[in-house]
Input
Amino acid sequence: MGDEVVLLGYHLSMFVVRVKIALGEKGVKYEYKEEDLLNTKSALLLQMNPVHKKVPVLIHNGKPISESRIILEYIDEVWKDQTPLLPTDPYQKAHARFWVDFFDNKVHEVAKKIWTGKVDELEKEKKELIENLKKIEEVLGEKPYFGGNTFGFLDIAIIPFYKWFSTYEKVGNLKLECPKLVEWGNRCLKRESVSKFLSEEKDVYEFVKMYRKLIGVD
Ligand SMILES: N[C@@H](CCC(=O)N[C@@H](CSO)C(=O)NCC(=O)O)C(=O)O
Output
């Protein structure tokens, strides 16, 4: 019997898109189950991820794996005969893990403070976001992809946020200065595994506007 793979997700979740891209790059077939995060989480989600109760959760032959970065590494190890996601060199692997951690904590979390917060009270966060995204752009440098000439782990981790940049700018009333990341994003979008799953900018913006009303900041 082949592998039974199920992905619990939410259509706009950048962390879920990471997993969809990785499974796409590996050519792994899976069943996708959309969670209604804004209303009631499914019993399956609560059973499979009782600690965080968040998506994505990858269920492989009945066994759940949570946290997108951990899921990416799991996928890379389990389906290792297809294109590798992580570098094989230990130092390059550590470098990739460092920058995904930086991105999650110093770009995504800072940006989330902005798009869920009172924008006129967030000058520090706005500066931080611009500066930290510049640091990510410096890691890319002149390379086509973060790992060099091939699309890999760090690209997969960051590209799902690409269509959120314009919403960061609109809601935060700020200007991101990352022309190389824009070029890189368009380059990644040429890959079917990316273009198939990345949200549209207008959908992201509509979601954030709705969410801000829901939590009473707008
Ligand atoms: N560190 C985790 C973050 C997952 C997450 O925040 N998932 C959100 C949807 S995307 O914003 C989620 O499931 N939220 C539901 C909740 O917070 O209850 C990862 O990398 O997988």
About this structure: Residues 90-215 form a domain with the Glutathione S-transferase Yfyf (Class Pi); Chain A, domain 2 fold (CATH 1.20.1050.10). The longest strand covers residues 5-9. The two ends are 52 Å apart (CA to CA). The chain has a mean pLDDT of 96.
